Amino acid sequence: MSKVPSDLKYTRTHEWLRTLPDGTVEVGITDHAQHALGDLVFVEVPEAGRKVTPGEPFAVVESVKAASDVYAPISGEVTEGNPALASAPETINTDPYGGGWLARVRPSGAQGGLLTAAEYEKLTAEEGN
Amino acid sequence: MARRTPLFAVHQAAGARIVDFGGWDMPLQYGSLIAEHHAVRRAAGVFDVSHMCVVDLEGDQVRPFLLKLFANDVSKLTAPGKALYGCLLNERGGVIDDLIVYYLGERWFRAVVNAGTRDKDLAWIRRHAEPFGVTVRERDDLAMLAVQGPEARARVAGLLSSAGAARALALGAFFGAQIDGWFISRTGYTGEDGFEIMLSAGGAESLWHSLTAAGVAPCGLGARDTLRLEAGMNLYGSDMDESTNPLESGLAWTVALNAGRAFIGREALEALRARGIERKLAGLVLEERGVLRAHQRVLAGTAGEGEITSGTFSPTLERSIALARIPAAAGEQVQVDVRGKLLAARVVKPPFVRHGKSLVG
Questions:
Q1: Facing residue for B33 by CB, picked from A38, A60, A62
Q2: Residue A98 near chain B (CB below 8 Å)
Q3: pTM, two decimal places
Q4: Which residues in A lie closer than 8 A to residue B293 (C-beta atoms)?
Q5: A27: domain range?
Q6: Which has the closest alpha carbon to B74: B97, B104, B115, B94?
Q7: What would the pLDDT profile of B105-133 be if each residue is shown by its tens digit?
């Protein structure tokens, strides 16, 4: 069973969100997503200063077999992309909710359409995985 | 409903991720694809390749039949058990399939063809076999395991009688023999040494468990693909098909154009060659970060453009490699359109990796 920490928010497209003490939101892909992708070998993270809107592809994760877009879950401005992933993309496989974070975003406006851990767990169960 | 090999339940029980491949439910990977890849490069791995189609060809006229059907020259097959790789071509010189043909006796040859092309291959083979009175028998009673890696032969030998082990270990490259009830050949699709074993379907599960108990890693089609690509081996349907000919697919070495043999596709190939072959299948090594994938556009400057036919991340080289069909005049440096960015790649002659070692610097 894949892990779904209860203190995070989630999206239907398998991103997770964590609000940090300074108000920025850390974004990554879920344990379920990294497991489905398999060994990650290349990650492209967004640059600081980039403005994003919900649903916009803002990062790319590539496994041996395929490339997948990661979507911005909220609107705002990227404050930082995770620099450690360039040389160690496998961190997403081993620590998806920690060292495997992709980007931090300073939110602008209201956040909507996010799922709780229980809702996300239900979603992945319904997908049959 | 997809077909299943005799080992399907074993794969499921091992937690394999199952995917459709050529109409078969096959294991993609059991755990980490990269770990499976390294197991084959460094020790030994086992693949279920029972989806491949084994066809026995029998009759007095089987050799003349294959001289006509097969683009490689079965006159090279004189020692019992010797195998030969080559293509079936249509009249236009397009590749119907690539296959291995074993010489088992003057009246008995064995072909191993791809799973995804099984039906059209069998129809083509049967159609041409009839005038030669050759019997075409699909051996769906057989399972096939590929045991590959530097330790693979020793692991298999450990499961044989002492006389059988001695015979198996004495097999030369591209030779096979019936040993202790199995047909064992020193062939593979990984660029490593090893055996492929054909045996009755009922014995497959026991052999699989004996191999894994001996420390051989179960490996899926995902690692099979990265291994074959590092080894510079073509995949039918990706790197060549009926719309491409062997001369532009890196397979000229498998086409025997020696005098006097009228094989199907020969006239078309000679006409193509006379006009000049304008494309080639080359290896690419990505010089920047990113991953090359099939169908990405290759820009070769004034020589023109081409397309990647197979691309992946190479676990051995820790960078991306590809096979690409590019203009024959392309130089050593090209660019690839990777998700809208032009990345630099170097053109090399495959293979990229052989016996665990990088060949591309």
A1: A38
A2: no
A3: 0.95
A4: 66-67
A5: 13-108
A6: B104
A7: 999 999 999 999 999 999 999 999 999 99
